[in-house]
Sequence to fold (422 residues):
Amino acid sequence: NVEEFYCSMRLRHNADDSEDADVYVRNGGRLNTVNRLKLPALRSLRLGAERGILQPNAMFAPSWLNAHAVMYVTRGQGRIQIVQNEGRRVFDGAVKEGQFLVIPQLHAIAKQAGKDGLEWISFTTSDSPIRSTLTGRNSVLKAMPQEVVMNAYRINGKDARDLRRNREHETIILSPTPQHQQPRA
Amino acid sequence: QLQQSCRFDRLNAQEPTQRITSEGGSVELLNVEDSEQFQCAGVAPLRETLNPNALSLPRYTNTPTMAYVVEGEGRLGVVFPGCPETFQSSTSRGGEGQQSQERSQKIRRVRRGDVVAIPAGVAYWLYNDGNRRLQIVAIADTSNHQNQLDQTYRPFYLAGSAPSGAQKAAGATSIGDNILQGFDTDTLAEAMGISQDTARRIQQNQKKGLIVKVERGLRMPGPPSDDYEREREREGN
Fold:
């Protein structure tokens, strides 16, 4: 039975298929995740992957993952910021094709593509990586009551509403806003 | 390796050794680096006390946390990624209706005697809406497989910051500024679609600590106390 299980196990899943993308944003990019639901063999490996493509100047929203990730830039360049638990930026720099970068578990990360876009593959040390974001449709701030946000940051109701809602129709991938068309990477 | 070399042949009772005092309460920690028995058990104990109308600021941690409410009552908000936002009330009682209410509810009432489980990496906050202090004790399970960082308890605060001097006092546990502080202001403003001024304000360290006072109290949806009481009575023994 073990032989039958392993011999017939599916070991391949294409992460570049745009029709299989978990997130697709016009002018923003796409994100394909490969987890244990898409590739059951990953259950025994306890590993996963994320394939990301950002269009020029698009942004990957500040977020954190419940596992380590090792990112490899497959094309383009961009700027990445990684923040650890004490609020200290432990990486702030440009990345380009051919480079690896470790993103430790739960460390908050923001990515912004340069003028040629940014493409990467990340390997995660979890077969079901879960990402929490600080902005967008599933933002943790949006999921908190407005009064909690107001008091946590000592801001007024309007600012709290803006903070929670201004990007509520967007996802983890943010298309560039008109005032941010110029790359900073 | 450490756990294999543990013998537990000399045990002693201990109390928290460090205290971080904020305007709305305190967080007390035990420096696990100095305690072989807690290192061997792979847990970090902590105690948090909130004064009435105090809000313990949103954070997530690198470890699953198991807490017990020693005294008082309050509201607990746990933010699971992808779940519907904030509290969703349901008039259904029992059966399917009750189950769906439990799945979508993001603000839970907690009171003395409750045990609370919080997974690693999930943001949560606590608010004392009672008229007496709310105290919880908890262990952070640093040796749990959900923790892939080192064996140190690491809270990632989304707001506020530890008061000056707390970093040193916290010993092995590293608590500093909130994580938004670490991002470039311009990046944060763009990502959140807010002005630079607002972005700067939410990054500011008010140095009022990790638990803040809420002047006029929080008004928010949630299960009222009397419903909660009825629920407990129905559950029985």
Summary: The two ends of chain A are 53 Å apart (CA to CA). Chain A has a mean pLDDT of 89.
